Amino acid sequence: MRPVAVAAFAQTTHTGHDTGLSEPELILPVIRAVREQSGLTEFGFTCSGSCDYLAGAPFSFVSALDALGAWPPIQESHVEMDAAFALYEAWVRLQHGDVDSALVYGFGKSSMGDLREIMTLQLDPYYLAPLGLDQLSYAGLQGCAVSSTTADIARRSWESAQTNPYALKLPEPVETAPITDGAAAIVLVAGDLLRERTNLAYINGIAHRIDPHYPGMRDLARSASAAAAATAAGVGEGPVDVAELHVQFAHEETILAEALGLSVDTVINPSGGPLAANPVMATGLIRIGEAAARVMDGTATRAVAHATSGPCLQHNLVAVLSRES
Amino acid sequence: MGNRCAVIGVGQTHYTTRRRDVSMAGLVREAALRALEDAGLTFADIDAVVVGKAPDLFEGVMMPEAYLADALGAAGKPMTRVHTAGSVGGSTALVGASLIQGGVHDRVLVVAYEKQSESNATWALTTHLPFTSSLVVGAGGYFAPHIREYMRRSGAPGHIGTLVAVKDRLNALKNPYAHLRIPGIDRAMVESTPMLWEPIRYLETCPSSDGACAIVLSSERAVTGTPAWVHGGAMRSEPIFRAGRDTVSPQAGTDCAADVYRQAGVTDPRRDLDVAEVYVPFSWYEPMWLENLGFCGVNEGWKLTEAGATALDGDIPWNASGGVLSSNPIGASGLIRFAEAALQVRGMAGDHQVEGAGKALGHAYGGGAQFFAMWIVGAEKP
């Protein structure tokens, strides 16, 4: 595949409450930041991730274009998924060879509604949603299926977050990702733009897979799709210094660490992970950004990032990043 | 644009007001199975699935790809959900094609759908309370002032919209999948229907449809059956609130067309293309897009329509399938345009086939006429 690298990453200082900023106001500073970091003002491709149901109105992504200042008109697309999947689309687009840069961003204000009940609406509307399981309930089902030291995971995440200026200032460890408003952006580069830069985190492998929707069709103690994505991304081809995992509930870390084949030497979620800040629709992208940041600052030689979507870790994306192409 | 990509299968449901006999999963599966059958393949032959639809509020299912994974045979594979407003069907095809053009996969299933009977799309589109007040009702309320401005600029006579409404519905009578098949449709019938949003009458608007459309995309080495080759694909977006933006002829549309024409070697679209499937949800958008897409000069589009150039027997047929005016499962409407263009160059469009079609344009737009997706497909390899 054509070498592609993360050249810039920015995130908001996340909040656990609505600060009165609109979505375009939320993303404007992170877009500006990655433009400054990358030295690029225009991009060959732009892709974003957001969810209408967080705002309770259609087309939440439309006004984001105003924050970009998308003029003259840009090559742009949007996924109604976590922006990590937008990054995947951008990585694919960069494989074509005709454009060398991509801007990816995601944003979400889950403070605006009842996230736990909103997440019920992504279940099968005929057979599952009417059961009324909210997000905590179906996560709980999965938690029961796995033996996990959730209190330890929560404490480590909370301690790690103390040095992360973007994370929420939570008074104590939590096993459930907090309600968060926030946004993030990443710039990808390829081709000649790689040669002009020295501090890059190359994407050595990236893949995603989805599992069957119905929890009863899956072994909830394992994640087949995360394991398949990890294999396709090449996680096992070398040691993993750092893994940033999209862990919205502490027990998910146990499932994911096994699926990705991580060793005890791998530092998981040094940023504190989603248990310290969970701006829904940007959380997965932030995992890629945090992993890239560890590679770029030299604290990791090889890092893994993970993003998820759907109930009980149904859909998983895995990326491997390092300084070498 | 990377590696070669071809459409090797097309599947559509019949478009109708209410598909009470199927769930959403059943609806998309019906289209997917027909596309696979057309390609002579099964779900096992598919590497990745891309799903597109318009706002989730239309059916009340958030991020429905999670729920649709099983019905579309996606388990164990990559699955993507695209959403770019009304242009989404076109964008979904382009995202699917990108996976092949980028050399990531050999066969991709692309599905777009809407089950409008699950809710009321007009109110789901009447944004944005409580964040901003809305002075319009539905998409027609938003676009009618742009149409009136087109009429003022071009001096087009008032009956042009009626001509488009009749022409597209006559074509729909030749398309077994079309939703609105109105025997005896004529100008008098259109002009007798109520005025909804001046100058748009009831029969000058698209219907609300349930339906799904699917295509199977293939790399060159994995082609089966009769391919329609992708000669070019492009997307463009512009901000809705930019001061000075021309909402009648948006630059994003012009730029997108220029990009796709350059890739496909088209210098004069009216001459070089044989048929076009263009997103015309309100009749007047035919003359407006004729100009925006460079099929004629500024303020000349209505003259092509009036002269019959865009009719099935004209020199550049537009919407031989009946178009969005005859079938509108919103999220699928763009993909239907792209799929119908492929059917034409594969020679498989049935009674609405344009004889000897070698190159065809598929077009979709969305948002406040700010998101554009287009592709050109051809019978010959690019």
Automatic annotation (TrEMBL), chain A:
Top-level taxon in the UniProt lineage: Bacteria
InterPro entries to which the protein is assigned, alphabetical: Thiolase-like
Any GO MF annotation of the entry: acyltransferase activity
Protein name: Lipid-transfer protein
Organism field: Herbidospora solisilvae
UniProtKB/TrEMBL annotation, chain B:
Pfam family, one: Thiolase_C_1
InterPro entries, A to Z: Thiolase (IPR002155), Thiolase-like (IPR016039), Thiolase_C_2 (IPR055140)
Domain Thiolase C-terminal: 246-376
Gene Ontology MF, one: acyltransferase activity, transferring groups other than amino-acyl groups
SUPFAM superfamilies tied to this protein: Thiolase-like
Coiled coil: none
Origin superkingdom: Bacteria
NCBIfam families: PRK08313.1
PANTHER family on file: ACETYL-COA C-ACETYLTRANSFERASE, NON-SPECIFIC LIPID-TRANSFER PROTEIN-LIKE 2
UniProt protein name: Thiolase domain-containing protein
